[in-house]
């Protein structure tokens, strides 16, 4: 099984793509919206990544999820399975190629701390960024189980970095 996209060198247009889509995404969330952030590898200058824009949407609650889902569907997003309680997931493919992943999390959700914390660590620590890129490329080259395997094998590195930095308890 392949990953959703091939890892490519950093593309400086990724932040611009996020900014172009941010107001459209925000339009789906109405009064629920607290913040929208660019996360994931495409948000880290210099880091090779799958060219899929990861977006974190922090919300007060998910009380308007069905109305939000309709707006997002009109923008080309499909709701996936919830990743955990309070963490809704959406994806957008264009011509069969994944372009965006949205993580809508209620305020205070651990996933917010983890995703923002890891992004910020990678932005500030060149050595960690290089180690993470090397791991991602190695996992891509040896992958036989698709995205689930890839994510599972990246997880120990991410958690160890977050614990070492004191972002999450050990």
UniProtKB/TrEMBL annotation:
Pfam families: GrpB
Stated name of the protein: GrpB family protein
Coiled-coil spans in chain: none
Domain of life, per lineage: Bacteria
Xref: InterPro entries: GrpB/CoaE, NT_sf
């Amino acid at each position: 099984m392949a990953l959703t996209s091939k890892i490519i060198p950093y593309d400086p247009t990724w932040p611009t793509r996020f900014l172009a889509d941010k107001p459209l995404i925000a339009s789906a969330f109405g009064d629920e919206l607290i913040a929208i952030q660019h996360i994931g590898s495409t948000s880290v200058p210099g880091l090779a990544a799958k060219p899929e824009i990861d977006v974190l949407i922090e919300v007060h609650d998910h009380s308007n999820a069905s109305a939000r889902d309709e707006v997002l569907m009109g923008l080309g997003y499909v709701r996936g399975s919830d990743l955990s309680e309070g963490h809704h997931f959406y994806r957008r493919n264009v011509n069969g190629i994944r372009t965006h992943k949205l993580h809508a999390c209620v305020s205070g959700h651990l996933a917010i701390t983890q995703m923002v914390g890891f992004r910020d660590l990678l932005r500030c620590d060149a050595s960690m960024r290089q180690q993470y890129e090397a791991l991602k490329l190695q996992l891509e080259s040896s992958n036989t189980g698709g995205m689930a395997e890839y994510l599972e094998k990246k997880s120990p590195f991410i958690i160890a970095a977050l614990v070492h930095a004191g972002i999450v308890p050990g």
